[in-house]
TrEMBL record:
<dbReference type="InterPro" id="IPR044878">
    <property type="entry name" value="UbiA_sf"/>
</dbReference>
<keyword id="KW-0472">Membrane</keyword>
<feature type="transmembrane region" description="Helical">
    <location>
        <begin position="40"/>
        <end position="59"/>
    </location>
</feature>
<feature type="transmembrane region" description="Helical">
    <location>
        <begin position="109"/>
        <end position="129"/>
    </location>
</feature>
<feature type="transmembrane region" description="Helical">
    <location>
        <begin position="203"/>
        <end position="222"/>
    </location>
</feature>
<feature type="transmembrane region" description="Helical">
    <location>
        <begin position="228"/>
        <end position="250"/>
    </location>
</feature>
<protein>
    <recommendedName>
        <fullName>4-hydroxybenzoate polyprenyltransferase</fullName>
    </recommendedName>
</protein>
<dbReference type="Pfam" id="PF01040">
    <property type="entry name" value="UbiA"/>
</dbReference>
<dbReference type="GO" id="GO:0016020">
    <property type="term" value="C:membrane"/>
</dbReference>
<feature type="transmembrane region" description="Helical">
    <location>
        <begin position="257"/>
        <end position="275"/>
    </location>
</feature>
<feature type="transmembrane region" description="Helical">
    <location>
        <begin position="161"/>
        <end position="182"/>
    </location>
</feature>
<keyword id="KW-1133">Transmembrane helix</keyword>
<dbReference type="InterPro" id="IPR000537">
    <property type="entry name" value="UbiA_prenyltransferase"/>
</dbReference>
<dbReference type="GO" id="GO:0016765">
    <property type="term" value="F:transferase activity, transferring alkyl or aryl (other than methyl) groups"/>
</dbReference>
<keyword id="KW-0812">Transmembrane</keyword>
<feature type="transmembrane region" description="Helical">
    <location>
        <begin position="136"/>
        <end position="155"/>
    </location>
</feature>
């Protein structure tokens, strides 16, 4: 036991929040806020609003799945291992959810509505959609709503352009496949059969990278009326990387190469959009 019980509990809570995807989505939301034209302070507020929602989703996931995680001996789940109180995780999830419902109101009712879509989608996934053929739908709605928070938080409360919705949704479904792939066997052993499970490890390892390429293509070509050579070169490079990720994903489904690739592609997409001169609205 740590000499500092509060710090020890905080560390275990952080590990129970799905820290990598939580941080990735939070940074992505803040970056979209800046690209939409929000101030740094307002973009940070957007990030905090999304962070609260992601924490509530991550904690509720580990609380609801604690029995299944324990059954398959998940060593990366402090709740399932009994290292942190399930009551503490549940209370933290509820507190974060309340904050995620109230804090976005400071951005305006439109942006708040988009933020609520993300939270409701995540909780819906945790409460049962994850075990159905429609497991991808919460990712479509949640990631598709991310650009809307950024643009609806502006003074004119504008909706994002079509390709921003489309790219966000495609990235979301790609994230779903990449995140589930390493846990396919453990999930199936406990009765969870979402869309990736039904397609299998090989099918998921192929579909995930294809979705990443499609999302990048939409972001590169959507805001442009001309097919600039550098856009095509970058799209080809992402495609080549996707092929490598697919091969690794098929051969080593227990690793997380596709998820790491998804985060890298998201960062690249943000950078490319920033230098392209496009606009989210």
């Amino acid at each position: 036991m740590s000499r500092h019980p509060l710090l020890h509990s905080a560390r275990l809570l952080a590990l129970s929040s799905h820290p990598l995807p939580t941080c990735a989505v939070t940074v992505f939301a803040g970056g979209l806020g800046l690209l939409a034209g929000n101030s740094i302070a307002r973009s940070l507020l957007i990030a905090v609003c999304v962070l609260a929602g992601q924490l509530s989703i991550g904690w509720s996931n580990d609380f609801l799945d604690r029995g299944r995680d324990a059954a398959v001996l998940r060593a990366d789940k402090p709740v399932a291992l009994g290292e942190v109180s399930s009551r503490l995780v549940l209370n933290s999830a509820i507190a974060a959810a309340v904050l995620a419902l109230l804090l976005p109101l400071t951005l305006g009712i439109g942006a708040a509505g988009a933020a609520w879509v993300i939270v409701i989608s995540g909780w819906g996934y945790n409460l049962g959609l994850k075990a159905t053929v429609f497991s991808f739908l919460p990712y479509v709605t949640a990631f598709g709503a991310l650009p809307a928070i950024a643009t609806l938080a502006l003074a004119d409360h504008a909706f994002p352009v079509w390709w921003a919705w489309a790219a966000g949704s495609l990235l979301g479904v790609a994230a779903h496949f990449a995140n589930v792939l390493p846990d396919l066997l453990a999930d199936e052993a406990t009765g969870v059969r979402g869309l990736p499970h039904r397609l299998g490890a090989r099918g998921s390892a192929i579909v995930g990278p294809l979705l990443l390429v499609a999302a990048t293509g939409v972001l590169l070509l959507g805001p442009s009326t001309s097919w600039s050579w550098w856009r095509l070169v970058i799209l080809a490079a992402v495609g080549a990387g996707a092929v490598v990720g697919a091969v690794v994903g098929v051969r080593r489904p227990g690793r997380r190469p596709l998820f790491a690739a998804m985060i890298a592609v998201c960062a690249l997409d943000l950078l490319l959009f920033a230098v392209s001169g496009g606009t989210l609205r």
